[in-house]
Amino acid sequence: MDTPAFPWLEAETSPTQTVTLRNVFLHVTKACNLYCKYCYFSASKPLPDEMTTADFTRLWPEMVAVRPQKVVFTGGEPLLRPDILDLLRNLRDADPEHRILRCLNTNGHLVTSELAHQLVGLADEVRVSLDAMRERNDALRGPGNFDAAVRGLEAYYAVGFEPKVLVTITSHSLPDLEELLVFLIQKNITRINLNGFRPIGRGKGHWDWRANAKEAQAAVRRAWVRCYPDQPPPPDPPEPETCSNCGVGQFLNIMPNGDVFPCHVLTDREFRCGNVREQSLLEICHKQRLLGHLAELDFHDLVQEDKSLADLTQPNTCMGNVYRNTKSSPVWRQRLPLANVISVKDVG
Question: What is residue 175's DSSP assignment?
Fold first, then answer.
């Protein structure tokens, strides 16, 4: 008998055959009650074919088998799903050894004291987006968002969570960064993620919205000196260590309809890794499939093969941004099975 072209599809895939995942970003809906100018997901209305509670129930054992470090429930606005607590609870119940951290992102508008209490034991981490002080924040994210986000943070804090604030730094919000950090620290909210703006989604093409990194670092240091005058400022973050790639292949971006992509940027159709409604997540994450090939990329090797990819070796490089400018390079077709991503239903 001939050897199958994909022998790993002939038997149940084991976790040792899958890529090692850090985070799974689970977009449970595209619906959102805000219209942020730079939303990377262009969220507004739900998709007509979003996954059901039953779809997610089938997914959870596979998710536990793949064993990412963290599953981030995001959207859109995940709290717009009436079954969001059930989704969190069912993943918790499918993972009795608690190998996966469960995280919930929200814009804060729907967070109440009651909901915060209900999330205790269901979410390990709760995160609220807040990008500037009231006037600039609401101009970017929508009327009333600043006050709603602060209320949400306070509600989480009151029930014992130490909430995390997600700050997207743009050229528009940068003037408020120092004051925002001082404001949050004075409220004892010190878990803060600073994220640079990415020109994707609704912000696509707006390269001028990127903030100056040195100015952002200076604002952070000024806020530290104001809040902790008796403590020396922390040293500047070390230069990024030389690594093989940007982490591509270690993340999953699962869309509301079940489509799977490697990250927030690589969402062109050629990077569709599969659909969790059509095939097992273990199969999608197998080392012989697209994710495995992505994880094995060594950017320095690619540059040796094609000098036009030189930007891949720059600090904090995003492969997605480089790929969009170098699609014609034969290196991508040689290294990645972009033209023949196989679905289980197409085999045998």
Answer: G
CA dist 43 → 39, 78, 127, 244, 324 (Å):
7, 11, 18, 33, 22
3-state class percentages of the chain: helix first, strand second, coil last, to nearest 5: 40, 15, 45
Q: Are 252 and 271 in contact (CB under 8 A)?
A: no
Tokens 């990329």 found at? 297
Cα 196 to Cα 84: distance, rounded to the nearest angstrom: 28
- What does the pLDDT look like over 269-283, one tens digit per residue? 999 999 999 999 999
CB count, 10 Å around CB of 88?
Answer: 22
Cβ atoms of 243 and 300 within 8 Å: the answer is no
pLDDT in tens, 16-43: 689 999 999 999 999 999 999 999 899 9
Supply the pTM of this predicted model. 0.90
> Among 79, 72, 231, which Cα is nearest to 152's?
79
Here the tokens at position 317 are 């490089």
